[in-house]
Amino acid sequence: MVMDKRSVNNPRYRRSDPIVPKRPRAGLERNDSIDEILRMKTLHDKFRSLNSKHKVRYSPIKMVGKGGFGQVFECTADVTNSGGYEMPQVVALKTETGSEIKLEMKVLLKLKNHNHFCELYDFGQITPGYSFIVMTLLGPNLSTIRKKMPTKQFTVSTSIRAGLQMLMAIEALHGAGFISRDVKPSNFAIGRPNGNRRMVYMIDFGISLVYKDQNGPVKLKRSEMTWRGTNRYCSLGHHKKHLPSPKDDVESWFYSLMELCVGELPWQYLGKHQKAETCKAKEVVRTTKREYFLGSCPFEFDQILGLIDRMTRDSIVEYHKIYASLTRCLIRDKVDFKDPYDWEYMLSSYQCSSSTAASSDRIETLDKSLYQ
């Protein structure tokens, strides 16, 4: 009898032999097949699903994003036996390991049907500890778009209107009981060309934190002061290891707004490990370098920073005062909310220049450049 070397009856069997196949890696290697990594089966047959009555097959087109815990793929969704169930033909499928994706699901479910958040269509598990969610496919993030601008910055009009949308999303997140802990331009994206490219969406909630529930504030643990987020945008309180609060997200939003409007932050060239130096720089721009920091911005920005700095961890964020300050900027500059955003203006300027086929090619090239 031929004995399988993995049989426990085989005297040469070693317990270290991998009887169970190894879990798929979170990172894709150059020679890996996307189909193999995602194991494209129908959710009805294979995975736990929000829509267990319907069979859905997701076919990856390309990778559109990659982070420390997983990837985001643009996929086609083939729904059979829909029974009236509607899903876009093209969706985003995000894969992750660990508990981060559970937080993402929790946030998207809580904020279902909100304008500034993706719609969660489905979720499943590939292997234990390796899961995916299916949601709205978006366009590029604000950081990517800003860097494609000729001056590497947005106009004041676009910065403020995008900033207002960002703050609306943050307010909704806080209202649902979550703190982001990672507010930054790259965590806000615009809609697709065939959707609403004027809408700004908040994304990536893998390190978010529940700070209140139906019973009121949740007591946070000291372990939750562990460094999370991005050095460039995090709040002074986070630098000083204070317990997180909504104020931290609003302060990070302000730094993001400044970067969109000015093109860079004074501490931009400090490395991610230079936390003490970055903290010091953020303190200096509030005192001796305040005019240098805010000099090229509308004076309302100084008022907003003052409002944020007067807040404590337990303060209720006065979003309405920030909205009012930014709205005054737009009124003074005679900006209409219906005016094109900078990314729209880039395309419209090409369209107005000529109606020739060559111009159409330039528009298509620019559009692809923006959305890739």
Automatic annotation (TrEMBL):
SUPFAM superfamilies: Protein kinase-like (PK-like). Pfam families: Pkinase. ATP binds at K94. One of its GO terms (molecular function) is ATP binding. The keyword ATP-binding applies. InterPro entries: CK1_Ser-Thr_kinase, Kinase-like_dom_sf, Prot_kinase_dom, Protein_kinase_ATP_BS. Residues 1-26 are annotated as: Disordered. Residues 58-372 form the Protein kinase domain. It comes from the Eukaryota. Keywords: ATP-binding, Nucleotide-binding. The keyword Nucleotide-binding applies. PANTHER family: CASEIN KINASE-RELATED. This is Protein kinase domain-containing protein.
